[in-house]
Structure formats: C-alpha cells, structure tokens
Design a protein that fits this description.
By secondary structure, the chain is mainly α. The chain has 8 helices and no strands.
Length: about 270
C-alpha cells in the first residue's frame, strides 16, 4: 500500500508574510513619521513665507530632498528584504510613486500619505481605533497638504483667487467638506488636479466617518440588546429559584403538619382510658 507523499502546497505571497520586512517596518515606523513631519515643515515654509531669505529657502530644498532620499532608502531596503519582490512592487505602488516622482512638487505630498499609513499601523490595536486615527490624521493632513499645494500652484497666476495661505486653507476646507462656495477656485491645471484629489479625499473621509459612526451605533444597540437578554435570563433564573424556595417551604410545612398529627395521635393512643 503506497502513501501519497506529495510535497505540501506552498503558501501564496498573500499568506506568507515576510518577517524581515515586518521587522524593518516596525523599526522604521516612528522615524519615518518624524521625517515626514520634517518634510512638511520644509515644504511649507517657502509657501507660507514667500519672501523668506534665500538661505532658508535653500535649506528647505535640501531638507525636502533629504526626506525623499530617506523614503527611497526605506523602499529599496524593504524591496531587497522581501522574498516576493514582484508582489511587493505590485502592492506598494504608492511607495513606488513617492520614489519615482520626486521632481513633481505637488506629488511630493504623497510622502504624507505614507506617513499616515505608518501612523495608522503604530496606533491603537482595535479596528475602530485605527479607523478613527486614520480618519482624523488623514483629514488634518489632507487639508494642510491641499492648502499648501493649491497656494503654491495658484499664487501669481492670472485670474487666480487664491493668493495666500489663508485663501488656500479656506478653499481646502470648503472643498473637502464638499460645500464649494465658489468664492475661491483654482485656475491652473495643477490647482485643478489638487482640487480633484481634495474632493475625492473629502468623500473618502466622510465615508470612513459615517461607517465608523454606524458601526459604533450598531455595536451599542447589540450590546444593549444583549444586556436586556441577560437581565431577562437573570430574572427568569431568580423566579425559578424563588419558586424552588417556596416549594421547599411548602414541603417543610407539610412535613411539620404530618409530624404534629403523628405526635397528637401517639399522645391520644397512650392516654389511659378512664
């Protein structure tokens, strides 16, 4: 009798998490979040203060380039550590875009998206906690990044209504909230691409917040229903326990009556006849 000794089927890359990549990402989570914060400051300074000294502007440019190099090194390191490199490339297209498109200034803000993802992994363990962290951080950074990008693209353009960071923040807020008053709007191609990203991001964040709120309400309703069922079970158990106590007392009273009757009968039998 022969035994089938076929080798076990290899796990697909989706189910075969590379521990080396996971360990690297865990070590680099907070350092890259700090680097992304430095990038945001360096990117924002020349936009918020357009008349800043040339030395400061040059330092900010070097800082932006340095942060891009850090993220590029991180991507290459994770790629080299991965056992399934094509799978890694296909499922990390955002990181690839960050590395491959360093010269397109608005797309440099993709670094912030990567930082949000890492902040999400480093946050709360509960699913709803991660969603809330992602939504809050994503909303704040989306407004900030959109305001900076549209201000940089629109400042000085002919017919532009966005000439400073204040205008940019107002436009970013009303656009992300899908209100769109129309008092400020982009006129350049780059600014309109930023507007498309802001609108899509606003819809996505609104959906996340709505889904999270719905999940919270459903969970509260389920917990309330479970507590009600538990209370009803406890009440039923108490009722049966009390019924058992009453039946026990009735049995004891019946036994006492029988005992009294028996003693009375014995006394009457033992009494001498006169």
């Amino acid at each position: 009798m022969t035994v089938d000794s076929a080798p076990p089927r290899a796990l697909s890359p989706e189910h075969d998490e590379d521990p080396r990549v996971a360990a690297w990402e865990q070590r680099m989570e907070w350092p890259l979040i700090v680097v992304a914060g430095l990038f945001l400051v360096a990117y924002a300074v020349p936009i918020v203060w357009p008349d800043v000294a040339p030395e400061v502007r040059r330092a900010c440019s070097f800082a932006v380039l340095g942060t891009w190099l850090v993220f590029a090194v991180d991507y290459v390191a994770r790629l080299l550590l991965s056992r399934h490199r094509w799978y890694f490339v296909r499922h990390n297209l955002l990181d690839l875009a960050i590395v491959a498109l360093p010269m397109l200034r608005p797309l440099r803000l993709l670094l912030l998206v990567s930082a949000i993802q890492r902040l999400n992994r480093a946050g709360a363990n509960a699913m709803r906690g991660r969603v809330v962290t992602y939504a809050v951080a994503g909303s704040a950074l989306l407004v900030l990044a959109g305001a900076l990008a549209v201000t940089e693209a629109e400042r000085g353009a002919e017919g532009s209504t966005i000439q400073n960071v204040g205008d940019g923040f107002w436009w970013a807020l009303v656009t992300m909230a899908t209100v769109g008053y129309g008092d400020t709007y982009p006129v350049t191609i780059t600014g309109r691409f930023v507007a498309v990203g802001m609108m899509l991001g606003g819809i996505a964040v609104l959906g996340v917040v709505t889904a999270t709120l719905s999940s919270w309400l459903v969970q509260n309703v389920e917990e309330t229903a479970q507590e009600g069922r538990a209370e009803r079970r406890d009440s039923t158990d108490d009722l049966w326990a009390r019924r058992g106590d009453v039946e026990g007392l009735v049995a004891e009273v019946r036994a006492l009556r029988e005992e009294v009757s028996r003693m009375h009968e014995e006394n009457r039998t033992a009494r001498p006849s006169g």
